[in-house]
Every structure is written in C-alpha cells, then in structure tokens.
Design goal:
about 5% helix; about 40% strand; mainly beta
C-alpha cells in the first residue's frame, strides 16, 4: 500500500509495478486542472516505455524531445494513462 500525504490529505493507493520495467510506481499529485488528483507514475528513467515514447507522439516538433511516462489512474480503477514528459535524448 502506498500512502501519499499532501496538505493534510492522506491518499492510500494499491502498490503497482510498471508492466514495462517492473519498478514500483510512485504517487504523483497532478495539477488541479487535470481532474485526476493523485496518480501512480513510473519514474524509472530507464523504463523502455519512457525511452521509446519519444517517437510515439504524433504532430510534435522533431526537436521537442517530448515523450510519455506510463501511469495509472486510481480514480478510474487504475486504468493506464500517458503523462507527457521530456525525454533525455
């Protein structure tokens, strides 16, 4: 069980490993305008999903280095979501 506390609000989340690299996913408080709240994100910089995602985004500038991290939304029965991220390439 992952426990996330922010501003006095405690959120309990199920433990989940990233299906792409096997690392334990970490809680992340999203910006309020997303409507997600706390999600679980794979923060492994060596994760194949993250490293290979730079070519998956359509209609982006070639020099932007944007990619995605794998994430799960606890508010939606832990369904997968992609979180935009800057790739290290």
């Amino acid at each position: 069980m992952v426990i996330h506390e922010y501003a006095g609000i405690v959120t309990e989340l199920e433990d989940h490993d990233c299906p792409h690299c096997g690392k334990l996913m970490e809680p992340w408080l999203t910006p309020p305008e997303t409507g997600w709240g706390v999600i679980l994100v794979c923060s492994n910089n060596g994760c194949p999903f993250y490293l290979d995602s730079e070519t998956d985004i359509e209609n982006k500038r070639d020099d932007s280095h944007l990619g995605c991290r794998f994430a799960l939304d606890p508010g939606n029965k832990y369904k997968p979501v992609n979180v935009l991220a800057v790739c290290p390439h």
